[in-house]
Amino acid sequence: MLIVLASARLGEGALEAGRAALNAMITASRAEEGCIEYAYSIDILDLSMLRIVEKWVDDAALVAHFQTPHMAAFQKALGELDISIIEVKKFQADEGAPLM
Question: Which residues of the chain have pLDDT under 50?
């Protein structure tokens, strides 16, 4: 399994201006074969920080994700918004185990 963690800085009004594009990206990505989880959240201590968590079954699923029409549309939408990607990293992981 792959885990992708990313952080992005939101400019003033970027969340509201980009909400439709963010919603479309989440919905389409979750429907992709190979997507285990795909979520965005706002950092409670820094409301201008967007956190992204993705889980994919393997590298092939992630590569296919980057080639989708909704990814191209999302990249175009990002170019029109005040959102700066700070970090994107992928990690290899096993299926995990409950902590409690």
Answer: none
